Amino acid sequence: MVSYKEIKASNALINDATAPRVAVFVGGTSGIGKLTVSALVATGASVRIYLIGRKSSEERTRDFIQELRAINPKAEVIWTEGEIGLLSETKRICSAIKSKESRVDLLFLTTGYAPFTTRRETAEGIEITQSLGYYTRVLFIQHLLPLLAAAEAPKVVGVLSGGMERANVNLDDLDLKKPGNFGIVKAHIHYGAMNTTTLEKLAIDNPNVTFIHSCPGWVNTGNVRRGLDSNSIKAWLVWLLLEPLIALFSFADEESGQRHLFQSTSAAFGGRGVPWKGKPGINSLGKPADGLFLVNYKCDCTPNAKVVSLLREKAMGKIWDHTQEVLRPYL
């Protein structure tokens, strides 16, 4: 485990020279994304942050941005509204960022929520939690890769379930449309494996960019009830049983934000970023080199070598081809 003391010491080294000069936070209006934005701004570094979220979160997010400006006047936080469950909206937002920026140092992805309900498809015909938890994320990465490649120490951090992959991905129904294939457990496992497999493919093809698939542990973000009818039995069970458990065992908000800031900036993962004198991270290929890092809530690398090797061999090609087929109209 990387101790909290070590993490705070590393984050204390973040300044104008080592901070991500331009950062894009997709899903940064709540939860871990918001906590990490707060931690980054609190370093006092000169940064420009694109904070992307839904129209319904605009008012409270603008209040949050005012708080950030009071903490660090050198930080420029740009509210960027979009319904990014829609791939067309993701493309629009990426086009806007590309028209303004020549580089992106950090792309931080936290969109999504637990699929407690039955399948709900977007207007584009994609199940909403899969769009947010997988397709939207990959589309952001692919659009912004040229800007990431122009940075000195670019990182992509996706927060979901890195290191907890299972090999039983349904390659015959990657969108879980067939009866009986969709459910909270199946979907969560499925999306996590798809993320890791695609992120590794992107890491192999783009060795100048560091990729992290993070498993945050329990964090009391309040996001667990999203998508549920507030008067439904499931919502009441979550409120009575699951949320108290999360509150009991979760990290403090500040520590979660600091740990994810460490992942986003430290040279512990791949050698680029804030200098790190500790043990170097091991990537998904089992090497202390750049690539994809599966990082747990302790900030330890958990390569899950046996499962990831099977996914690499049997699933990577099919998942990538299917993903590109879905995303092609929006690239």
Automatic annotation (TrEMBL):
Single GO MF annotation: oxidoreductase activity
Record-linked Gene3D superfamilies: NAD(P)-binding Rossmann-like Domain
Superkingdom to which the source organism belongs: Eukaryota
Keyword Protease: no
Pfam families reported for this sequence: adh_short (PF00106)
Keywords of this entry: Oxidoreductase
Name used for this protein in its record: NAD(P)-binding protein
